Amino acid sequence: MQYVEVASRLLLVTVFAFALAGKVRGRRAWAGFVESLSEMAVIGRAVVPAAAVAVIAAEAAVIVLVLLPPGGAATAGFALAAVLLSCFTLAVGAVARRAAPVPCRCFGASETPVGVPHVVRNLILVTASLLGLVGSLTNGSVDPVLGSVAGILGAVLGLLMARWDDLAALLRPSWRAPHASPAGRRATFTPGRRPRAG
């Protein structure tokens, strides 16, 4: 489990570093994140600004804690990540059920609407957090070479999570495709003539 913990550390650090940087890299990015949080309508508009600050503070705390040597602080970091990501998953799931056209600004500027792919991504990250949490509670030595490989793998997976929208579009371009007509065909219309199936 020690190598799983190492991989989870680098995965979470990469993901939260990209997420944090994407939100605070400029006024426009920050305003877009706050606006998307408001449009999600999962919390009252009055508390949205405070919630946005709490999110970036929690993300920064996760980065710092999971980078600390194995022990209580690192364990707390994994636990915080699991709780934070679980909250994100519930919020994203609620928006996805409503099919509300709210852009996902988790990693900064994006026009991709929140949907099922984002729920899947968050569940993967919750799982990684829990695995890291379990690993942080076990004792054992880590081989430097194997530990480096595990860390690199975790960082690569973190990059994939950060680019999840592009990955989801590539692997499953029909996530949010419009429903086909009952006949499975598109209706066409020619001026002066009755519509016919095309």
TrEMBL record:
UniProt KW keywords: Membrane, Transmembrane, Transmembrane helix
GO biological process: methylamine metabolic process
Topology of the protein relative to the lipid bilayer: Multi-pass membrane protein
Protein's cellular compartments: Membrane
Domain Methylamine utilisation protein MauE: 1-134
Keyword Transmembrane: yes
InterPro entries documented for this protein: Methylamine_util_MauE (IPR009908)
Pfam family, one: MauE
Principal localisation: membrane
Membrane-spanning intervals of the chain: 42-68, 75-99
Stretches the record annotates as Disordered: 177-198
Protein name: Methylamine utilization protein MauE
Gene Ontology CC entries for this record: membrane
Originating organism: Nonomuraea deserti
Keyword set includes Transmembrane: yes
